[in-house]
Amino acid sequence: MNQVSIIIPSFNEEENIALIYESIKKEFTALAYDFEIVFVNDASTDRTLKQIKLLSGKSSKVKYISFSRNFGKEAAIFAGLQHVSGKAVIIMDADLQHPPHLIPSLIQGWEEGYDQVIARRNRKGEHPLRAVLSSTYYCLINKVVDVKLEDGVGDFRLLSERAITAVLSLNEGQRFSKGLFSWIGMEQKIIDYENVLRKNGQTKWSFGKLMNYGLDGLVSFNNRPLRLCFYSGALILCLSVLYSIITFVQILKTGIAVPGYFTIITAVLLLGGIQLLSLGVIGEYIGRIYYETKKRPPFLIQETNIRNGVAYEKNRPRIYQIRHYRGN
Ligand code: UDP
Ligand code: MG
Predict the structure, then answer these.
(1) Which ligand is nearest to the CA of 43?
(2) pLDDT per residue over 77-87, tens digit each?
């Protein structure tokens, strides 16, 4: 029987681990597929790992990878993808916001031959301000980035073996999965579902984290902000040259007028602002180059119970990690 792997990044989700396991198990009883769940514990500070180990003690279908510190959801997804052994993988959140009852539809899409079957949520029940900010962000960002980023489309999706290999072959350190999934392309099917609110625990996304995520999306997939700096710089330079020539001619004709305080201060502030903004944009890219040249692994594994169940080995980029095998 073919196996489908489920990756669940988990950070402080102690109340949800058993719930999500039961829901997934229920879904698979009616399916002609075997399953494995790979929980990626992102250094939770509560009893998440304990709950996962409890399950893995009971069922060999439950596997886990536990990070040495919090590396974030993106790294957790990457780690999961490197360790799955199924013919397809489904990535879902631990908090049941990605409803397990969609699993059969995702698998059906895969059976139809799609490489990516994407679950797309609406924004029902969400804070209106967040909904408005998000849709504005997606509207704007799609005008500048090279890939298509869609509102309501996240990491909740099924990837075929081919898609997994493709995603893993992109070995950039700072990963923006949404963009990477879109970048690989392939045959895609979208399944819509109603937004579900988190039942237990709290969201890990503060406003600041969301802003950073948004910026990651912007600068990970294009160099247009750099171009924008260049063009606005060039435009301002032309205007200043024109202004100097006009003023110089005027001085020659009528002599020096009373020095214009307003003009000077406006020019200084405007130019200063544009320069700082441009420096910020350049700095953002240089920062990325800095981290990429270090070639640090995107995560370190503290412990795991996965030993030989690693598929797609040939295509995997090499990573360096602390490994400490326990369990079965
Ligand atoms: N998560 C993680 N590491 C983090 C933050 C979150 O692995 O540093 C996991 C979290 O446990 C959950 C998923 O990522 O399974 C989505 O997080 P959350 O529900 O907080 O995000 P939201 O649904 O609010 O966008
Ligand atoms: Mg959530």
Answers:
(1) 1
(2) 999 999 998 89
- pLDDT tens column, 157-193: 999 999 999 999 887 877 888 889 988 988 899 999 8
Q: Can you tell me whether residue 239 is helix, strand or coil?
A: helix
User: What angle, 0 to 180 degrees and rounded to 10, lies between the N-to-C axes of helices 177-184 and 73-83?
Assistant: 50
Tokens linked to 31: 């399916």
Ligand 2 (single-atom ion) residues, CB below 5 Å: 93, 95, 97, 198
What does pTM read for this prediction?
0.77
Correct CATH for 3-222+297-309 of 3.90.550.10, 3.40.630.30, 3.40.640.10, 3.20.10.10? 3.90.550.10
The answer to whether residues 43 and 67 touch, using CB atoms and an 8 Å cutoff, is yes
- For residue 71, the ligand 1 atom closest to its alpha carbon is 8
pLDDT for res 310:
42
Distance CA 257, CA 246 (A): 13
Q: Name the residue ranges covered by the structural domains of the chain.
A: 3-222+297-309, 224-294
**Centre of ligand 2 from the C-alpha of residue 198, in Å:** 6
For the chain, which residues score pLDDT lower than 50? Answer: 310-328
Q: Is residue 205 lining ligand 1, measured as CB closer than 6 Å? A: yes
Q: How far is the CA of 74 from the centre of ligand 1 (A)?
A: 10
